[in-house]
Each structure stands twice: as C-alpha cells, then as structure tokens.
UniProtKB/TrEMBL annotation:
<dbReference type="Pfam" id="PF00583">
    <property type="entry name" value="Acetyltransf_1"/>
</dbReference>
<keyword id="KW-0808">Transferase</keyword>
<dbReference type="InterPro" id="IPR050832">
    <property type="entry name" value="Bact_Acetyltransf"/>
</dbReference>
<dbReference type="InterPro" id="IPR000182">
    <property type="entry name" value="GNAT_dom"/>
</dbReference>
<keyword id="KW-0012">Acyltransferase</keyword>
<dbReference type="InterPro" id="IPR016181">
    <property type="entry name" value="Acyl_CoA_acyltransferase"/>
</dbReference>
<feature type="domain" description="N-acetyltransferase">
    <location>
        <begin position="9"/>
        <end position="149"/>
    </location>
</feature>
<protein>
    <submittedName>
        <fullName>GNAT family N-acetyltransferase</fullName>
    </submittedName>
</protein>
Amino acid sequence: MVLEQEEGISVRPARSDDAAFINGLWKGADRVDVSETKARLVALIKDPGEIIAVAEMDDRPVGFVHAGRTRTLYEDLAVNLVGLFVDDDHRGRGVGRVLMSVVEAWGRAIGAHDVRYECDQDQDRAGSFCRDFGYRIASARDRCVKSLV
C-alpha cells in the first residue's frame, strides 16, 4: 500500500522489517537495541492511534515519520509528531515534505485540529523545517521528564 507518491518518493506504512533501518537512522538509537525497536514497531503499527510511515526512493528506505493522536481535557484532538528522520544523503530533496503531507492527511482523516511538533528552538534545522512548512513556534516550554522505571 502506498500512502503518497511524488517526485520519485513513495511513502508506505512501516513494516516490522523496517526496524533496523529505523534504528540506524534514529539519532537516539544508541540507547535501544534493534530487537526492542522491532517489538515496539510491531505494537505501534497495529495501533490505529499511531502512524509510522517509511519514505523510499529507488526502492530504498530514505526516511520515516512517527506520529500519534493526542487528546486532552483542555485541547481538541491533535496529532503529535513524535519524530521525522531523513538520511543525510537525501535531505533537501523533498522527503521530509512528503512525509509531513502524509501525517497531515492522516490527521485530517482522524478529525485532528492540528499537528504539533516539539522541536528544539536552538536546533536551527528543525526550527526552520517547522517554519518552512507553515508551523509556528507555539511556546518556548521545555519538556520535563521523570523516569518511572
């Protein structure tokens, strides 16, 4: 199944055999074994509240995106962009734009009010990516995290 196709880029739903590619591209993968990534990927691709898609060029994976729905008492249904990664050799060729269009189309299909992407404002590439595609920096909040394990 192809989710999107344009300019030599096709996007398809992620499969369990994409785990090694995803792990290799994800910048935090040094903390997670490929088998862990595969187990999580298998669970997430079955969840209708998540989308994980892989972009390919010339039948080779070159990027992926992960997003999920989020709803709170104080905000409408939204899509939370968990991560979008494109390999270095394919940046600037429209892969990120095509992956974002898939996430936005999915968001519209599930009735989401908006797409949210938490990016580090000091990270120039991520910040300009957001602005280039019509996103605005909504706040300067830092995310707080406490481990429960």
